Amino acid sequence: MKSPLYKNLALWMVIGLIVIVLFNVFQASQPSRDKMVFSDFLKRVEAGEVIEVLIRGKSVSGKLA
């Protein structure tokens, strides 16, 4: 017969595995963020490929079409 320690350990391992799987699912659902140099970003703005721009201090981000 298995001891309660092994049952508890198995339960915590299953809970940990579920947490890891859920974390990976939610991380994969976020849009990708590619970094580029500012001059390339400006070229894409001028070409009309940027649909949204967000400026926070020295950080500039945007959504590409």
How would you characterize the overall build of this protein?
The chain has 65 residues and is an alpha+beta fold. The chain folds into 2 domains: 1-30; 31-65, no CATH class. The protein contains 2 helices and 2 strands; from the N terminus they run H-H-E-E. A two-stranded antiparallel ribbon has the order 1-2. Strand 1 (50-56) and strand 2 form a beta hairpin. The longest helix has 25 residues, at 4-28. The radius of gyration is 22 Å and the shape is rod-shaped. It starts with a helix and ends with a strand. The model has no long low-confidence stretch (mean pLDDT 85).
Question: Keywords, please?
Answer:
single chain; 65 residues; alpha+beta; 2 domains; two-stranded antiparallel ribbon; 2 helices; 2 strands; 52% helix; rod-shaped
Unreliable parts: none
Outline, from the CA principal axes? rod-shaped
Helix content estimate = 40-55%
Helix-strand string? HHEE
Sheet with the most strands? 2 strands, antiparallel
Number of strands: 2
Could you give the distance between the termini? 61 Å
Biggest β-sheet: strands ordered side by side in the sheet: 1-2
Q: What is the count of DSSP helices, taking H or I runs of 4+ residues?
A: 2
Radius of gyration: 22 Å
- % residues in beta strands: 15-25%
What structural class do the secondary elements suggest? alpha+beta
